[in-house]
Amino acid sequence: GDQRELLKGIQAVGKLGYQPALDFLLRMSEDERRKVSRSAFLALGELGGKESVTVLVVAAKDVQAVEATRLAAMEALGRAGSNRAVEVLLELADEGELKFRIGAVKALRWSENTKAVGKLSKMLGNQDLRPHVIEALGAIGGKKAGKALLALHNDETVDADTRFEAVAAAAMARNKKSSEPLRAYLSSPDEKRRVKTMRALASMGRKVDVPALFDAYKKATGREKGIALWAIKVCSGKALETEEDIEKYIKKKKLR
To answer: Please, where are the H alpha helices in the chain?
Structure first.
């Protein structure tokens, strides 16, 4: 019970950005209880600031530290999102053991800092890092990230699964040009892929995607049908509930 309350307290001061708690979080980051130290690292990331980032950099680079500690410090740097934090994560993603390079790339997805995009885009050529780089670029977003992801999708020498993940991430990055190639995956025989496509199209919220989503909705059943309807509502910006409502909307907006 005491540890649960302690964890709640650590998370709260991090989310609130309560700077006077810095010393407390620094002490907790050295706690022998792994859950406590991890929570303290993440809270330091949420807290941000030069001093917090400095501590996290030391922990993330410490090759003598246990794996969990280094990975927690990396994630915290990602959550801090400052230019210095991103710079260090890019360094860690570029060299060293693969598990830590992957950890650094995964952490960058939290940063929302577009300064990471240039170097991340170059890492798309690394087969081991590529799935994580795709996810990170999609999460960070922006024109350059979307462009790099769409270029990967358009590369016919790349395997089909990677091309799909790239175009879905490009949509998450709000690249409008990803809309048309992504719609094709609504006809995939794989339900998980169809659902991910619906969610990716919804993330862009473009009314031009409503007709394709409606066609998918009519073929879908169960949970997938519900997700398709949700995506239609998001893309249309309207509370469309019935097939008749959707058909009227498509006709009114001249989307076919």
So the answer is: 2-16, 22-28, 34-47, 50-61, 67-80, 83-94, 98-108, 117-122, 130-140, 143-154, 160-172, 179-183, 191-204, 210-219, 222-236, 243-252
Placement of tokens 């307290």 in the chain: 9
The two tokens of residue 189 are: 């025989």
What is the per-residue pLDDT across 168-197, written as a single tens digit (0 to 9) for each? 999 999 999 999 999 999 999 999 999 999
147-162, pLDDT tens digit by residue?
999 999 999 999 999 9
pLDDT at 1: 52
Q: What tokens does 194 get?
A: 């169809």
Residue pair 85/56 in contact (Cβ under 8 Å)? The answer is yes
Instruction: Label residue 79 left, alpha or beta by phi (over 0 means left) and psi (-120 to 50 means alpha).
Output: alpha
DSSP string of 27-95, one letter each residue: HHTT-SSHHHHHHHHHHHHHH-SHHHHHHHHHHHH-TTS-HHHHHHHHHHHHHH--HHHHHHHHHHHHS
Residue 246 binned pLDDT confidence (cut-offs 50, 70, 90): very high
| Residue given tokens 């952490």 in the structure block | 107
Alpha-carbon separation of residue 26 from 14, 23, 50, 65, 70 (angstroms): 12, 5, 13, 16, 15
